[in-house]
Amino acid sequence: MTRVCRGTTIDCQTDREMSFRHAFGVPVSREAGVDATSLSRAVAEKCGWQLFDRELLDYMAEHDHLSRLALEFVDERSVSWFHEMFSTWLEKQLVSQAEFVSRLGKVLLLAAQHENSVFVGRGAQFMLPREHGLAVRIIAPLAMRVRKIMEHRQCSEREANEFIETTDRGRAAFVQRYFHHAVADPHLYDFMINLAHIPREDAVDLIVSEAKRHEQLVLAASSNETAVR
């Protein structure tokens, strides 16, 4: 069975129907305010791959009959113990963050078996097969990110700073709680790009080049393994 959510296609096979082949994935971690979605979309378009960002929430809301707003509430955020304990008691369409992560992992693995993809945030690199991906982190100086948020959200400098602080803190807490890693640790990534020193267009080309190179290495290794068998 195949479902389509806002231009995103995910092949909904049963566990028995799923092949054990994994496509290649590029999980993109990011600091708030670097506009990683548009950068990741450019990478996906140049590679001819699928992009998964907020489309993941659209799919989960439709497929699992959950409130889209409820998913937003637990998506890469710090949530209270009260919400975790009582949310599903209060409303059937609400979901605890732990349940959200469990469902998210299943969707990510399903997508990874379907086609080559670029995944934005949400700890994707910790749920996908490490040997079949290229982990990237996009960063930029705070001042640069503040200007971007002020422009995008049409807000004051103070509001932009607060948004960045809250968003980065929530993402860090999310990764630490469920994957036991510090999201800013450079050792978690194949390479990091600082947009203060590398223009966005060059950053896209760098990721595309490395992704294609890594994909060929994975394909070669898979072919060798098959030949040995």
Report a brief summary of the structure.
With 229 residues, the protein is an alpha/beta fold. It has helices at 36-47, 55-63, 68-74, 81-90, 97-114, 124-127, 142-153, 157-179, 200-228; strands at 2-5, 8-11, 25-30, 50-52, 117-120, 136-139, 191-194. It has nine helices and seven strands; from the N terminus they run βββαβααααβαβααβα.
Please characterize this protein's 3D structure.
The protein is an alpha/beta fold and 229 residues long. The protein has one domain: P-loop containing nucleotide triphosphate hydrolases (Rossmann fold), CATH 3.40.50. The protein has nine helices and seven strands. The chain has helices at residues 36-47, 55-63, 68-74, 81-90, 97-114, 124-127, 142-153, 157-179, 200-228, and strands at residues 2-5, 8-11, 25-30, 50-52, 117-120, 136-139, 191-194. A five-stranded parallel sheet has the order 4-5-3-6-7, with helices on one face. The protein has a two-stranded antiparallel ribbon with strand order 1-2. The longest helix is centred in the C-terminal third of the chain and has 29 residues, at 200-228. It is globular. Mean pLDDT is 84; it is low at 1-20 and 80-86.
